[in-house]
Design brief:
Blueprint lengths: L6 E11 L12 E6 L5 H9 L17 E9 L5 E8 L10 H17 L3 E9 L6 H12 L4 E6 L6 H15 L6 E3 L8 H8 L6
Parallel strand pairs: 2-4, 2-5, 5-6, 6-7
Antiparallel strand pairs: 1-3, 3-4
């Protein structure tokens, strides 16, 4: 599927939830995004949808405290259009968040990931500038243990040179026990990685 064939042509906020009975009931495919607080998730979502301000960007980590659903329309070909939900999950690993809040968030995030009937893919976002972080490793291990489909995305690649990106790819691949090709390097600023991510998401909408 080429970049010109697959695209997001419409995006809008749908709902926020902390319980299953609050999830949209449309039966549409869902693709969820999760990552450490301040990983650049909102910027990536806005970049993917080409909709500035769709997901709120904050300099304060831990700002997203609910599961947020966005209704997207994908153009799969000249004739085919398909709606789906992009699901923005709260960030994990923010130290200043209270213990009670962390437990509450953990519970409803886990419930969503385990029980959402239309969830087809979880995109785990990882900041390319750092060595493997304990929270990221633990999240990936949990997703694997629960046999959930994961796409690893490396954010903020515009902060590094091409040489540094290749070096970090190798470091992170070793740390996460995957191949470098298992990552999609992404820059919300430059839009690099957008076509590759769409090529992963759009075929799911045809299943």
């Amino acid at each position: 599927m080429s970049e010109t064939a697959a695209n997001i042509i419409k995006a809008s906020y749908e709902a926020s939830a902390v319980r299953m009975d609050q999830y949209p009931q449309d039966g549409l495919t869902e693709v969820a995004f999760i990552g450490r607080s301040n990983v650049g998730k909102s910027s990536l979502i806005n970049s993917l949808c080409r909709h500035h301000g769709l997901a709120r960007i904050s300099g304060q980590p831990g700002k997203t405290q609910t599961i947020n659903f966005y209704r997207l329309t994908a153009k799969l070909s000249e004739e085919a259009r398909q709606e789906f939900f992009l699901v923005d999950l709260p960030g994990y690993g923010y130290a200043k968040t209270g213990v009670a809040n962390r437990r509450s968030w953990s519970k409803f995030i886990e419930e969503y990931l385990k029980k959402a009937p239309h969830l087809k893919l979880i995109c785990q976002l990882i900041d390319i500038r750092h060595t493997p972080q304990a929270g990221d490793l633990a999240m990936l291990e949990w997703l694997r243990q629960n046999k959930l489909p994961v796409q690893l995305i490396l954010t903020k690649t515009d902060k590094l040179s091409k040489t540094a990106i290749q070096k970090q790819l190798a470091v992170l691949a070793r740390g996460f026990g995957v191949k470098s090709s298992d990552f999609i390097p992404y820059s919300a600023v430059k839009g690099t990685g957008r076509a590759e991510l769409l090529d992963v998401i759009c075929p799911l909408l045809l299943q």
